[in-house]
Design a protein that fits this description.
Blueprint: H1 13-27, E1 31-32, H2 33-40, H3 48-56, E2 63-68, E3 71-76, H4 78-87, H5 93-112, E4 118-124, E5 130-137, E6 144-152, H6 155-167, H7 169-181
Antiparallel strand pairs: 1-3, 2-3, 4-5, 5-6
Helix pairs in contact: 1-3, 1-4, 1-5, 2-5
């Protein structure tokens, strides 16, 4: 009989606020309410109502909140970034890693839905290295065709790679398609 892995639940509203700041800080970009609900509900880690309570009290000091197409979008203030750096380690590492992985998936998927055939995001890990996610959509279907993960030694290298790909996304997409399709 297999032992069941205990679920990790975060029900302390302040820890949920730190988790939200940590996710925004780690991704390096704002997240909307729907994305935060989807990310934090992974394995029922955070209850929806606890998240809503945390988000209600997060704006002003830790995050800014703007409505975009009727959906609240949260971005860290300087204090929110500081809270993520200082208190993020109070959250279990397994939770931080799972939530971050889910955040990258959700954010990347949502970016793909936009018009671009190539989208590039990167996230800095705690050890200073960066993981770059590159999604290439099919020109015919508009659906994801390739998803590449590139590791970079730091933010400077990640920025350089991201700028290079974004500088000529069509050329990069054509290169990959010719490389893989032959």
């Amino acid at each position: 009989m297999m032992k069941e892995v205990p679920r990790i639940r975060i029900d302390d509203v302040n820890k949920i606020r730190i988790l939200v700041c940590h996710l925004i800080y780690s991704l390096g970009c704002p997240l909307n309410r729907d994305q935060l609900v989807e990310i934090t509900s992974l394995e029922q880690a955070v209850n929806y109502f606890d998240l809503m309570e945390a988000l209600d009290g997060i704006t002003g000091r830790l995050c800014t909140c703007k409505e975009v197409n009727g959906i609240p979008v949260y971005a860290n203030t300087k204090l929110g970034d500081a809270a993520a750096r200082e208190f993020g380690s109070e959250l279990p590492q397994s939770v931080r890693e799972k939530m971050f992985e889910e955040a990258v998936k959700v954010y990347t998927r949502d970016e793909i839905r936009k018009d671009s055939l190539v989208s590039v995001r990167y996230a800095e890990q705690q050890n200073g290295t960066c993981t770059i996610g590159v999604t290439i959509k099919s020109e015919k279907t508009g659906r994801q065709k390739y998803y590449l993960t590139i590791s970079a030694s730091g933010k400077e290298e990640a920025d350089r790679i991201k700028k290079r790909i974004q500088g000529s996304p069509e050329e990069f997409r054509r290169y990959l398609e010719s490389y893989f399709d032959e």
